[in-house]
Amino acid sequence: FLAYLEGLNRSASHISHVGTRVRKLIADCGWRCLGDVTAKSFELWRQKKSGALSVKTRNEYRAAMYSMLAWLEENEELPANPFKRVKKTDGRGQETVKRRAARLWEMEGLLNAAGSYAVAYLAAATTGLRRGELSKLEWGDLHLDVGKAVALVRAGTTKDRKAATVELGPQLVAELKRLHSPGMPSNGLVLAGRMPTTKQMREHLAVAGIAYVDAQGRRLDFHALRMTFDTNLGIAGVADAERMKLMRHKSPRLTMETYT
């Protein structure tokens, strides 16, 4: 199954996570052959882990096992996928990490305090690209001297393994042009040395007088800048369907509730 995922060009980290989760479920649930795998045994395992694992992590275990069983069923190694009726755990209101969007004055303060890292914060908050996607952007992916400047995000660098065209705003374009010189190789990383660590971001926030965790326990971390992007689209009156498209989400609820 893991070789099959590799053939689909899934990332090494994704394959490793899937393998780890499937193996742990097999061990914890005492499954010795395919006939031992049942929805009930998984449900019992999930209930036992409710205090130890977050809702997101438990859903990831379910997804990993479900995908392998579906592959076995498709290849006629299993008469039916026993996980077909196992539903995801509803994690609304139970998130272990809660985030919030940055206010305008906070973004301005963060950018002013961040020095050479400011361009990464600006890129995240104005494109919605994830940390991993931004860190893998190459100069050859950028088209800055066209009517609408864009980044052509390669499929191998995105979470869903689908290529994306992302528009770049004028402030970000100006910063990127300032960083680029004609002699730079096209495969050079755009934000090399400019992607802040969590510790560095916390230091930048502190300099700007912004709390990393607010009174409601919500973080303003790097991924929260993706939430900032979506929230600002909502404030600007961008239609829900368009926001979902720009966020590259499959679920409207994820766009309208979790990221706004």
Structural account:
The chain is mainly alpha-helical. Helices cover 48% and strands 5% of the residues. It is built from twelve helices and five strands. The chain has helices spanning 2-7, 12-29, 39-48, 55-74, 104-113, 118-127, 131-135, 170-179, 198-207, 224-235, 240-247, 252-258; strands at residues 98-99, 142-143, 150-153, 164-167, 218-219. It has a three-stranded antiparallel sheet with strand order 2-3-4, with no helix packed on it. It is globular, with a radius of gyration of 21 Å.
Helix content: 40-55%
Rg, nearest Å = 21 Å
Number of helices: 12
Spans of at least 5 consecutive residues with low confidence: none
- Class by SSE composition: mainly alpha
What is shown here, in short?
Helix content is 48%, strand content 5%. It is mainly alpha-helical.
Topology readout:
Layout lengths: L1 H6 L4 H18 L9 H10 L6 H20 L23 E2 L4 H10 L4 H10 L3 H5 L6 E2 L6 E4 L10 E4 L2 H10 L18 H10 L10 E2 L4 H12 L4 H8 L4 H7 L2
Parallel strand pairs: 1-5
Antiparallel strand pairs: 2-3, 3-4
Helix pairs in contact: 2-4, 5-6, 6-8, 6-10, 10-11, 11-12
